[in-house]
Amino acid sequence: MILSRQTHAFHTADPTADEEHIIYRAPKGCGRVTLTNASAALSAAIASDASNWISLRISKVGDDGAETPVNVTALLGGANTAWVDNTPVDFTITTAADANVLVEGEYLKLTYDENGTVAPDTVSVFLETAIGKVN
């Protein structure tokens, strides 16, 4: 049963080489939360290049933050991937084994990986969630 749908935004300005950020926590008392869609946009364009690129991935970790991460999305970006400034790109959500379903207290973590020299300026990630289990 779906109780509500919400959109959440996370922004980080000019990230450095490799970073990880907690970007969402499933609220206590909600039962389950399903990540139904996610997208990312950069405020600066990045040309397709084999040596200078960024990639993003969303994973979930346990409520203590120490659990081994479970990939919730496929890798977005990477070598030879161009980014158009201020143009959202959808992540591919992994639904197998309920990878995209969080129990209350679990976190979503964004991993930013940078190779070579790139300047994405601001990285924005948008999450669409539904309280309850959708798939």
CATH class categorisation? Mainly Beta
Distance between the termini: 11 Å
Low-confidence stretches: none
Classify the secondary structure makeup into a structural class.
mainly beta
How would you characterize this protein structure?
The chain has 135 residues and is mostly beta strands. It has a single domain (5-131), classed as Jelly Rolls. Helix content is 0%, strand content 48%. The strands form two sheets. Strands 1, 3, 7, 8 and 10 form a five-stranded antiparallel beta sheet that branches. Strands 2, 4, 5, 6 and 9 form a five-stranded antiparallel beta sheet that branches. The protein is elongated. The model has no long low-confidence stretch (mean pLDDT 92).
State the main characteristics:
Jelly Rolls; five-stranded antiparallel beta sheet; 135 residues; mainly beta; 0% helix; elongated
Summarize the structure.
The protein has 135 residues and is mainly beta. Helices cover 0% and strands 48% of the residues.
List strands and helices in order, with pairings.
Blueprint: E1 5-13, E2 18-25, E3 32-42, E4 53-61, E5 70-71, E6 76-77, E7 89-90, E8 101-103, E9 107-115, E10 122-131
Antiparallel strand pairs: 1-10, 2-9, 3-7, 3-8, 3-10, 4-5, 4-6, 4-9
